[in-house]
Amino acid sequence: MKIALLYHEAKREFEFPNDIGSAKFHIELCQKLGLKASRTRFFRVPEGPSSDTTADESQKGGRAMRQRKVYINPENSKKVLSDYLDGEPAESTVLQLGIKDIGPQFSYRGVFLLEYTGPLVIWLVVAMNTKMKTAFTNLATVMWVFHYVKRLFETLFVHIFSNKTMPLRNLVKNCAYYWGFAAVISWTILQSNVRINMSIREKVGEWEELLHAFQDTKDYSHILHLSKSISNHLLYEVSIMPAALFFISELSNLYFHLKLRYLRPPGSRDHFLPHGLVFDKITCPNYTTEILSWMFFAMFTRSWVCAVFNVCGAIQMYIWARQKRARLAEQFPEAKKRFCIFPLL
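That's the Synaptic glycoprotein SC2 sequence above. Prediction below.
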C-alpha cells in the first residue's frame, strides 16, 4: 500500500504491506522519519484537502474537519493498515496521512500512582506532627488512608487504561490539584481537634450529672435523657453515621470498578453496556459513589475545603459521564435513557 505523508509542507511517499499491524506500522514509520513514537500520531487526512495540502493546513479546517480525522491507533496490535481505508480497495488507494506531535508523554498508570500517593503521604506527615490526637482525628485518618490505598490498589490491579500515556502537562495539573487540596484539607481537619475535645468533655460532664441524678432519685427519666443525649452525640456530633456511610460508599465504588474491570473479555477492545443493580439506570455509578464518599467525609469532618474539593471533582466527573454516555449511545441506543451520575442529571 502506498502512504502519502504530508510532513513539513511536503509530501513524502512510502510503501507498506496492506496487512501490517497498525502498531508495527506506527513504529516503523516513526523510525523512517526519525521521530519519537511515544509523542507522534498519524491521522488520515479527510477527503476535503487536496493532495498538496500540508498537515498543518489540514488541521485548520475547523471543527467539522477535526471530527472526521481518523487516527492510526499505535496501541492496537490487531488492527491492520487496510482497515483504515473505509472499504476502498487497498491496491489502488493511496492512504494520505497527516502527522501530529502530541508533546512529551507520561505513563497513564504512573500519573494515577503519583497523584494518589501524594495525598496519602501528605496526610500521614501532617498527622504524625499533630500534637493532640483524638478518636476523631484517628478515624478521619483511617477514612483518608482507606480511600487512597483503595485507589492505589485499583490503579495497580483493577483499572485497564485504553491509552498507555497522557501528556506530561496532565501530570503537573493532576498532582497540583490532588496534592494542593490534600495539604489544605489535612491541615484544617487535623488542627480542629481542640474544639471537638472540648465538646466531648462537656458531654461527659453532662452525662455524669444525669447518672448521679438517677442514683439519687431513682427517676428513670434521667436514664432516658442520658441515652438520648449519648445517641444524639454519636449520630450528629461525633458523626458516626456519615463515617459508616463513607465506608459503604467506598466499598460500593470498589464493586462497580470490579464489575467494569471484568465487563470486557481478556484481549477484547470492544465496548459493552453494563447491566445490573444501578447500571440499568445510571451510566457511571462509580462516579456516584465517589461523590457520595467525599460528601460523607466532608460531613464527618465538617470541612468546607473538602466540600469544595468534592464539588470540583463532581463537575469534572459529570463532564466525563456525559461523554461516556454519548459514546455508548452511538452503539447502544438504550444508553440514552440512563442518567449520567444522579437521577435527573
